[in-house]
Amino acid sequence: MNSEEKPPQVKPAPGPGIPPGAGGQVPWVALLILVIGAFMAILDTSIVNVALPRFMTLFARSQIRYSGF
Question: Quick one: DSSP state of residue 47?
């Protein structure tokens, strides 16, 4: 090897789970899925709380039996 020659440059391999060329999109997709999941949980709780009085009148039961406490 001459003093003028440089050793070949080696690029590091992409990390596990990150496809080549994905850049910074993977964390944003994960964040979007997490936010949608949290929103759906809140929406589901709200729907049950709105429908609970109607269930109580239809089935003549107390709120304790339907709310899970």
Answer: H
For residues 52 and 44, give the distance between their C-alpha atoms in angstroms, rounded to a whole number: 12
Task: Sketch the domain layout of the chain as residue ranges.
Answer: 25-67
List the structure tokens of 19: 């496809």
Tokens for 11? 């690029």
Are the beta carbons of 42 and 49 closer than 8 angstroms?
no
**pLDDT tens track for 36-60:** 999 999 999 999 888 888 877 887 7
CA neighbor of 49 nearest in space, from 31, 22, 67, 30:
67
Residue environment code for 10-40, b if the CB has 16+ CB neighbours within 10 A, otherwise e: eeeeeeeeeeeeeeeeeeeeeeeeeeeeeee
Q: Which residues contact 45 (CB under 8 A, 6 or more apart)?
A: none
